[in-house]
Amino acid sequence: QKEVEQNSGPLSVPEGAIASLNCTYSDRVSQSFFWYRQYSGKSPELIMSIYSNGDKEDGRFTAQLNKASQYVSLLIRDSQPSDSATYLCAVLSMDSNYQLIWGAGTKLIIKP
Amino acid sequence: GAVVSQHPSWVICKSGTSVKIECRSLDFQATTMFWYRQFPKQSLMLMATSNEGSKATYEQGVEKDKFLINHASLTLSTLTVTSAHPEDSSFYICSARYSVLYEQYFGPGTRLTVT
């Protein structure tokens, strides 16, 4: 059973600070990793994808991947109240149909 | 780019009736689309994977005769909930695979309430 694990939170971070979200996965052959943001009552929105070891930066967001440790993280710099949402980690399964295996999500709360 | 639309955004129907939900990729062709269901405060649950021109692949426990999926073109997939019951009330979300990088983009979702 392929799994993706996230701390459910809530993770509370002061406005302006760095929010750090973590995700571990069980399938060693996975090559593609995604972070989605989901606001309450809305559908998920893709915010970052990462395919190689190391860091990938996009604006205030940085995704970090360590395949040896089977670990993916998302850093949000200068956190804003609008960043308050549930963040979902997804890992591409290399099985048929190439489905995403989803973590349960981490609820992030940015306190003004 | 990579916009997915879904219609209707919400629907209320009576028990025993059928409801059709449309999912369209507006600016790209999607050979594969996915249908998810999400209950309040719960995780996304994949219902089925839909490939253009072929039968959908349903996840274990999802009744294929109740949730009919058609993916007739590279930009349109439909989900029909047949003989809906109150327990089918949920948030139904489609997604479309955008590229060889396997990114999935989601539609805005359809909130179904069965009375």
Structure write-up:
The complex is a heterodimer of chains A (112) and B (115). Chain A has 112 residues and is mostly beta strands. Chain A has no helices and 11 strands. In chain A, strands 2, 4, 5, 9, 10 and 11 form a 6-stranded mixed beta sheet that branches. Chain A has a 5-stranded antiparallel beta sheet with strand order 1-3-8-7-6, with no helix packed on it. Chain B is 0% helix and 52% strand. Chain B is built from no helices and 11 strands. In chain B, strands 2, 4, 5, 6, 9, 10 and 11 form a 7-stranded mixed beta sheet that branches. In chain B, strands 1-3-8-7 form a 4-stranded antiparallel beta sheet, with no helix packed on it. Chain B starts with a strand and ends with a strand. At the A-B interface, strand 5 and strand 9 of A face strand 5, strand 9 and strand 10 of B.
Describe the largest sheet of chain B. Answer: 7 strands, mixed
The average pLDDT of chain B is: 94
Largest sheet of chain A: 6 strands, mixed
Number of strands of chain B: 11
On the 0 to 100 scale, the average pLDDT of chain A is: 95
* Class inferred from helices and paired strands of chain B: mainly beta
Q: Which stretches of chain A are low in confidence, meaning pLDDT under 50 for 5 or more residues running?
A: none
